[in-house]
Amino acid sequence: MRWNKISDAVVRRLPLYLRVLDEVARVGETQMISSQELGEKAGVGSALVRKDLAWFGEFGKQGVGYEVEFLRTELKRILNLDKVHKVVLVGAGSLGIALARYNIRRFESDDSFSLKIIGLFDQDPTKLGRIYEGIEVRPLAELESFVRENNVKMAIITVPADAAQDVAMQLVKGGIEAILNFAPIKLNVPEHVRVASTDLTLELQRLAYYLSGE
Amino acid sequence: MRWNKISDAVVRRLPLYLRVLDEVARVGETQMISSQELGEKAGVGSALVRKDLAWFGEFGKQGVGYEVEFLRTELKRILNLDKVHKVVLVGAGSLGIALARYNIRRFESDDSFSLKIIGLFDQDPTKLGRIYEGIEVRPLAELESFVRENNVKMAIITVPADAAQDVAMQLVKGGIEAILNFAPIKLNVPEHVRVASTDLTLELQRLAYYLSGE
DNA sequence: TAGATTGTTAATCGATTAACAATC
DNA sequence: TAGATTGTTAATCGATTAACAATC
After folding, report:
1. Is residue B213 pLDDT above 80, yes or no?
2. By C-alpha distance, which of A153, A105, A112 is closest to A132?
3. Could you tell me which residues are beta bridge partners of residue B194?
4. Contact residues, A window 110-149, toward B, CB-based 8 Å cutoff
């Protein structure tokens, strides 16, 4: 399962397609969907839908379209979502806990349930041992070994900016391959580690640009 | 202050530059900064830095670079961050409260403090009247009038997916111009309203793609 | 078969990078 | 002045869109 050289822009749209298919399957009106309709619901041109999917194989039938259930299964496979992934969340502040809750809810209601937070970590000794959403808060000192021993490949960082780089390094040493980062800082990690950043401040500042100056 | 036609890609980098300048100013070692150095710290090529800034004027001196404080002030002005903007947050669940807290902390520590949450809204009657971070939770029914009467132009949505579109419409009717959306759904809004979406699920699913299949 | 839609190639569009004259 | 770096133009790169032969 190695399709290297697939552009990031393409990969970014796959979960979008999957979401549309999930919804179409849930409503259950149609068995088949055209690139046209899939594109419309995903907010993407139909040609781009076809081109994106074509990177991974031939999933459609000319004159008919794509079988919803089949494409859904294939996309899950492509995205590695046909397996359960263990996730650690570092930073048990209010944002971290909220994400743990949000995330777990979301994936529990999903039939696939492919991401599972198995560890919460925090630097604050007063938080240690507390249990949120059924998961115990552990000390940062155990992070690296926990990640290694449990073979965790994915992490979410919600610690303050000045601690984030350090945490990232611990995670990498433990063998993490993908990080979702909420700290407002650019993480420095080796090539083989993927980082997705969600930077609230940057987004808000960007939006301010579009406000008609008052 | 109308530079229409500036591409989104450019606007997206401006807050990044601002952040670098803030940091450089805080450390206070240098008065001047070159596009080279600014680019390095922002993770962007030096030519692109110059090109981005050139859209808005001539801020540098040949042979020398950009004056840190001056460029910082200019960027704030360009991004509309030289004014205080009132923000409403809709959805006082754990994510909403966490964001309110996070956000307020962040901008309070900043000397500019240009975004200020002035209203929290929730549909749950048991939450009404509660006070978080000094802000009272109000009923959704009052959202539109509150936004209009207080001349609020920016909103954050943290309600569940099935309520988000409805909330967005209320906000737009009240006169909102920019929305930061955390609900996992594409919001349908008029042309003149800007939406930035942060979709945790899409990001996580995207990251899963890069995991070496176990 | 006739109509529709895929998979794919070529054309277009937009964004980034390279290069350099202008000039501090 | 000599060295450095801007602002800007031209070249490159990559991503999206248009078009259409293949075919269900």
Report:
1. no
2. A105
3. B178
4. 114-115
Q: How many of the other CB atoms lie within 10 Å of CB of B126?
A: 8
Q: Which residues on neighbouring strands pair with residue A65, listed in sequence order?
A: A61
For chain A positions 152-171, those within 8 Å of chain B (CB to CB) are 153-154
* Residues belonging to chain B: 214
How many angstroms away from the CA of A52 is the closest CA of chain B? 14
Nearest to B213 among A80, A198, A208 (CB): A80
Q: How far is the CA of B14 from the C1' of D1 (A)?
A: 37
Q: Provide mean pLDDT across the span B11-19.
A: 97
- Per-residue model confidence as pLDDT tens digits over B162-199: 999 999 999 999 999 999 999 999 999 999 999 999 99
Residues of chain A with CATH 1.10.10.10: 8-78
pLDDT at B212: 79
**Residue range(s) occupied by CATH 3.40.50.720 in chain A:** 85-202
Contacts of A119 (CB under 8 A, 6+ apart): A88, A89, A135, A136, A138, A146, A147, A150, A152
**How far apart, in whole angstroms, are the C-alpha atoms of residue B139 and residue B128?**
6
Cβ(B146)–Cβ(B136) below 8 Å = no
Nearest residue of A to residue B187, measured between CA atoms: A43
Tell me the per-residue pLDDT of A124-181, one tens digit each, with 9 for 90 and over: 999 999 999 999 999 999 999 999 999 999 999 999 999 999 999 999 999 999 999 9
Report the CATH architecture of B8-78: Orthogonal Bundle (1.10)
Whose C1' is closest to the CA of B62: which nucleotide? D6
Return the CATH fold of B85-202: Rossmann fold (3.40.50)
CB contact under 8 A, B205 and A93: no
